[in-house]
Structures are given as C-alpha cells and as structure tokens.
C-alpha cells in the first residue's frame, strides 16, 4: 500500500501551504507588523498627552482614550508649568480573535483524521502495525 505514503506526503504539503496562507492573512488582518503612531492630544485644562497607538486607530479613539486617563496633577483648579510637558500614554492593540488560528490548524487536523479513517476503511480495517 504505497499510495498511503503518497497521500500522507500530499497532506503534509497542503497543510503547510494552508497554515502559511492563513498565517499571512492573520498577520495582515490583525496588522501585527504595523508600526505604532504617535498622537499629540491637548485636554480641556491645557494639559498635554502623547498617545502611542496602533496605526489603524482613529483620532476620536485616541481623544476618548486620553479622556479616560486624565492627569491628576493638572485640572481646572491645579495648573502649573509641568502641565505644558506631555505625559506619554500607550494604547494597547485590540484583542486577537483566535478563530483564524483554530481554522488554520483545525482543518489540516480534521483532514488527517478523516483521511486516516478512509484509508483504514479502504484497507479492510486491518492493523497497520
């Protein structure tokens, strides 16, 4: 039964291609290799922020992030020369959706299980040992 080895080799090649293509899609879609962008934001009390965010972030999201993280040392009642120096804030990337990872590895694993079952059935349910 030499054709079993050939089918296994084809499975290895197609699985490697499948995982490579879906990995490239995952990296591109999640912008995992994209560089961060720096935004300069000024608050209502003239306090300054320097927000480092992913490159696909909108300015509205950056302003909302800065408003959720106000400076305690600068407000309408407290103001000083230190408020003119920006505080660095870092905005984290959105959580990664693992669905594509599951598909990338699940489809080849499922194909191996189904193919092994067919091979075992077509060989007459014999032991391979």
Structure commentary:
- With 129 residues, the protein is of the alpha+beta class.
- Helix content is 47%, strand content 14%.
- The chain has a three-stranded mixed beta sheet, with helices on one face.
- The two termini are 13 Å apart.
Give short descriptive properties of this protein:
3 helices; alpha+beta; 129 residues
Question: Which value, in Å, is the CA radius of gyration?
Answer: 27 Å
Structural class: alpha+beta
Question: Which strand order spans the largest sheet, edge to edge or round the barrel?
Answer: 1-2-3
Mean pLDDT: 87
How many helical stretches? 3
Number of DSSP-assigned strands: 3
Order of helices and strands: HEEHEH
Catalogue the unreliable spans. none
Globally, the shape reads: rod-shaped
Write the layout of secondary structure elements.
Layout: H1 3-29, E1 36-42, E2 48-54, H2 59-68, E3 87-90, H3 99-122
Parallel strand pairs: 2-3
Antiparallel strand pairs: 1-2
Helix pairs in contact: 1-3
In short:
The model has no long low-confidence stretch (mean pLDDT 87). It is rod-shaped and about 85 Å long. The protein is α+β, with helices and mostly antiparallel strands and 129 residues long.
């Amino acid at each position: 039964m030499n054709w079993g080895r050939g089918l296994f080799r084809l499975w290895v090649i197609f699985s490697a291609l499948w995982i490579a293509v879906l990995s490239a899609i995952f990296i591109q879609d999640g912008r995992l290799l994209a560089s961060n962008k720096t935004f300069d934001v000024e608050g209502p009390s003239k306090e300054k922020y320097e927000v480092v965010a992913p490159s696909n972030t909108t300015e509205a999201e950056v302003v909302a992030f800065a408003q959720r993280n106000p400076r305690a040392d600068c407000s309408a009642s407290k103001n000083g020369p230190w408020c003119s120096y920006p505080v660095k804030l870092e905005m984290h990337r959105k959580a990664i959706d693992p669905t594509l990872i599951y598909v990338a590895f699940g489809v080849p694993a499922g194909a191996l299980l189904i193919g092994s079952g067919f091979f075992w059935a077509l060989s007459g349910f014999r032991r391979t040992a």
